Amino acid sequence: MKKERGFIGPIGDDLPSLIPILFALVIFFASFTSTFQRLDKGTREFSNAISLLEISDRLRGDRYMNNAEEFKELCNGITNVGSIYYKVGIVKLPMNESLDIVKFVNENQGVLVVDGEIMQCTNMDQKIRTDTKVLVRKFPFAFQDSTVHSGFAIRPMLLVVVLWD
Amino acid sequence: MGLNSKGQAAITDAMFLLMIVTGLASFMFLVSGSFGVNVEKSMKSLYGTDYAASALQTILYSSVPRHPNETLDNASEVDYLLAMVKEDYANNPRLSDSTKKQLLKTISTTMQPLSPAYDYLFYIYIPPQEFENKSWIPANEKNSFVFMLIYAADYSATPPRKFYYCNPPVAGKIVSDNDLDRYLFLKLGELNKPPRVLVNLKKLRPLGSNRYDPVNLRSYVSLVFWPSKEFPQGPAGENLLSSNYLNCTEATP
Question: What value of ipTM does the predicted structure carry?
Answer without folding.
Answer: 0.82
